[in-house]
Amino acid sequence: MKSRKDEERRAAALTYKQGFYAPVVVARGKGVMAEAIIACAREAGVYVHESPELVNLLMQVDTDAFIPPELYRAVAEVLVWLYGIEQERQ
C-alpha cells in the first residue's frame, strides 16, 4: 500500500545552452515545490513531460549540476521527442 508520501508529486526542470556539455538541473522538488515548478513551466509555455522514472533519477542530481552521463540517453530521447513536437507546431 502506498503512503501519502509515496504519492507525492515530484518534478525536475532542466536547461541546456549552447556550449554546455550536458543539460543542467535548474530546479527539483516534491509536493508544493513540484507543483510550483510545473506551474511555472506551463506559464512560460514550456512543455511538461511526465516520466516518473526519469524524475526520480533527476531528483538525485544536485540543483545547478550537470546531469550525469548515465542519464544522457534518456534525456536526449526526451529532447528529440520535444524537438519533434515543436517542429509540428511550426
UniProtKB/TrEMBL annotation:
Any Gene Ontology CC annotation: plasma membrane
InterPro entries the UniProt entry points to: T3SS_substrate_exporter, T3SS_substrate_exporter_C
Record has Metal-binding as a keyword: no
Protein keywords: Cell projection, Cilium, Flagellum
Transport as UniProt keyword: no
GO biological process: protein secretion
PANTHER family, per database record: FLAGELLAR BIOSYNTHETIC PROTEIN FLHB (PTHR30531:SF12)
Similarity-based family: Belongs to the type III secretion exporter family.
Protein name (record): Flagellar biosynthesis protein FlhB
Organism: Oryzomonas rubra
